[in-house]
Amino acid sequence: MLWLGLFKPGDWLIVALGLALCATAFPLAWQAGAAEKAIVRRGGEVFSALDLSRNRRIDVPGPLGVTTVVVEQRRVRIAADPGPRQYCVRQGWLSRPGEIAICAPNQVSVEVQGSRQPYDSLSY
Q1: Burial level of 67, CB count in 10 A (0-12/13-18/19+)?
Q2: Which class in CATH covers the domain with range 35-114?
Q3: pTM score over 0.70
C-alpha cells in the first residue's frame, strides 16, 4: 500500500471521475426498455408474436408433441413441454427483453422483445 502515497490530488480526481463514469454507464449499457412482445418460434420459423399486454395461452405443435406457452401480467413462460428434461419449463417466467427459453427437443423457443435490443456479449 506504499503506492497510495504516490497519488497526488489530480490523480484522485481522475480516479473519482473514472468511477463516476463507470457507475453511470453501467446501467445505461444494459437497459433495454420495457418488454412488449414475445416471439414464439417452431423449428426456427416464427410461429406467433404475442402481445404481452394481453393474457393468453397458446399451444405450439412440435415433433414430440404440444408445447404450451402462457402470457400473464406482461410476462411469458413455457407451462408444459413434452421434452424429457423440462429445461424450458424450469426457466420460469420471462419478463425482460432479451430473455429466452428454448425447448430444443421439441424445436420450440420463446423470446421476449422490447423497444430496444439489449446489449449482450454477442451484440459486441
Answers
A1: buried
A2: mainly beta
A3: yes
